[in-house]
Amino acid sequence: MVNDICTSPTTTILIRTKNEAKYIGKTLDILNNQSIKPNEIIVVDSGSTDGTVEIVKQRSDIKLIQISPEEFTFGGSLNIGFKAATGEIILLLSAHAFPYDQHWLQNMVKHFDDQKVAGVYGKQLPQPDAWPTVERDHLMCYKDEIRIQTDPDNIKEHSFSNANSAIRRLCWEKHNFDEILPACEDREWAVTMLKMGYKIIYEPSAAVYHSHNESLLKVYRRIYKEIIGLQSIYQLRVGRFYVIKNWATSVLADFCFIVKNKKRKFWLLRVPIYRLFWSYGFLRASFSKNVK
Fold it and tell me: Where is the Glycosyltransferase 2-like domain (predicted)?
């Protein structure tokens, strides 16, 4: 899997895992078929009990780093992986994010000839079985046009996702990932890079399939953590009216999407409940004291 010839720049693929036995083998197989090979692949596992570690150990070309669940934070586990990596460009990939084609790595690293590019993130396509709410959210967030983000004062240019990204190691050395944030460590890093005068690129051709059909409780917990992270970054809070309005507009947009795309009609009943748990996580986080 690892490239035998010298390439420029050198690349490391870094994957975080916990109980990803169902997916990690497929992800590694897809990486093995890329048009250009990475110089190394590192897996940082935080306490898998489902056989993930055993699957990774079967592949002699993968470097495995194991940490305890108690040691894990999103930013902390990435920093551990970066310290062990040798690549000039570190590609971050979720264990259950499957590159769309064999040109994923090539399309991700092509922008780094520009020394002002700190990071690149790619498109995330909904899985074929994605729920309509999840599918609409992905299609809304990840468009088909390339974006060059340079303005630290424009929140629309702060987007970045470590589920599918590439980072210049020298830029990470200037600012490591925040190890305290419960989520959004990727956005915090990107905002810092913009403030330092670097660029962030959104490259839609570096696409992966990555989405989650989560239980209502998991939806609530994920949104709660993300909003806590965002509030820590921006030191802003929103009121109840904003959350209620957001729920209503999201439900209406979901209804239109379901009807337009001829999805199964039972989703018209499920959507308001799904968005209610989403909004409840938003609301609870907005009034939480767990903001650093």
Answer: 12-165
What values do phi and psi take at 117, rounded to 5?
Answer: -85, 115
Each domain of the chain, given as residue ranges in start order, spans 11-209, 216-286
CA dihedral 122, 128, 130, 134 (to 10 degrees): 40
Question: Distance between terminal CA atoms of the chain?
Answer: 41
Q: Which fold has domain 11-209?
A: Spore Coat Polysaccharide Biosynthesis Protein SpsA; Chain A (3.90.550)
Q: Indicate whether 6 pLDDT > 50.
A: no
CA–CA distance, 44 with 66 (Å, rounded to integer): 6
Tokens representing 260 are 């337009």
Contact status, residue 86 vs residue 12, Cβ threshold 8 Å: yes
Q: At what angle do helices 132-141 and 267-286 cross, to 10 degrees?
A: 60
Please tell me the predicted confidence (pLDDT) of residue 236: 80
| pTM of structure | 0.92
Query: Could you tell me the pLDDT band of residue 5, with boundaries at 50, 70 and 90?
Result: very low
